[in-house]
Amino acid sequence: MSTKTQAIFKQLQSLNIMEVAELIKQIEEGFGVTISVVKTFSYSPDPVNLASGNSSESSKLNVILEELPTHQEIAILKMVKSLTSLDLRETQEFGDSVPTVFKEAVAIKAAEDVKKHLEAASAKISLN
Fold first, then answer.
1. DSSP label at residue 3
2. Among 13, 9, 27, 19, which Cα is nearest to 92's?
3. What is the pTM of this model?
4. Fewest 10 Å CB contacts: which of 6, 19, 24, 55?
């Protein structure tokens, strides 16, 4: 990588997700291109496991997003957005509130699945 592109890359790493979204829009308009993000995987929770009516409280866990490493913030927030119904602004606000509960009182298997996906994006997760 050239010195110029390395400098640009370092600047891009410092952007928050809202700034990245704005930059993408400017690049699309300025260069007449479309930038599409390809998901490497997706998560569709099993509604039976997430239902709170049938299981005892001892079989439920909270998924807590403990830490959002700056160098992986965008990837983690993309994962958060794909696992929730949050829009871009809400996802950014969620990321700004770390540490925070990501999912409350979910089945153990579902909590472990969510943890696995978020940790794959370098998030620090705890279950309790």
1. H
2. 19
3. 0.53
4. 6
Task: State both tokens at 97.
Answer: 């509130």
What is the percent of the chain where pLDDT is above 70? 81
Q: What mean pLDDT comes out for the span 50-61? A: 59
User: Which of these, 18, 92, 105, lies nearest to 64 by C-alpha position?
Assistant: 105
Residue identified by tokens 């929730």 is 84
**One-letter identity of residue 75:** A
pLDDT band at 48 (very low <50, low <70, confident <90, very high): very low
C-beta atoms surrounding 95 within 10 Å? 22
Question: Which residue type does 64 have?
Answer: I
Asked if pLDDT for residue 49 goes beyond 60, the answer is no
From residue 58, alpha-carbon distances to 13, 31, 52, 64, 103 in Å are 41, 55, 12, 17, 16
Handedness of CA 42, 52, 107, 79 (dihedral sign): positive
